[in-house]
Design a protein that fits this description.
3 strands, 6 helices, 3-stranded antiparallel beta sheet, about 140 residues, mainly alpha, globular
């Protein structure tokens, strides 16, 4: 659904664009935010930013634990959202390479520091979890 269609659906006059708000239940930006915050999307973007263009198998090896199905679904969503470019080279067999588009590169630059922060602070968070679990055995 386009932003204009959403505006019409919500009773806004024709041509008036609604304000996007990820906290609003029916806002299209919320669905996009949720897709990006899934288990694999940000890891895919970070891998492409760090390693450059990659084939499917390279991405799968580099992102431990992602299944073929989930990698395929996530790449398709990222491609649909204009974040990832899928290029098919006319060879036998065809070679497919994934790369970041400008929006994807911009987002990867924003989330890569979060990945580094998580690596730096994981031990502290694990210790906090252990402390919490010891104090709340029923949780």
């Amino acid at each position: 659904m386009t932003t204009e269609e959403t505006a019409r659906e919500q009773g806004q006059p024709h041509g008036q664009v609604m304000e996007l708000n990820v906290f609003a239940q029916l806002c299209p930006s919320r669905e996009m935010f949720a897709e990006l915050a899934d288990k694999w999307s940000l890891l895919i973007l970070m891998s492409l930013a760090a390693c450059g263009p990659q084939r499917f198998s390279e991405l799968q090896r580099g992102i431990g634990g992602v299944s073929r199905k989930m990698l395929t679904q996530s790449l398709r969503t990222l491609e649909r959202d204009g974040l990832v470019l899928r290029t098919v080279f006319p060879e036998t067999p065809p070679r497919v390479v994934y790369d970041l588009l400008p929006l994807g590169r911009e987002l990867a630059e924003l989330v890569s520091p979060l990945g580094r922060w998580t690596e730096l602070r994981a031990r502290q968070m694990l210790a906090a979890r252990e402390e919490f679990d010891a104090a709340h055995p029923e949780a």
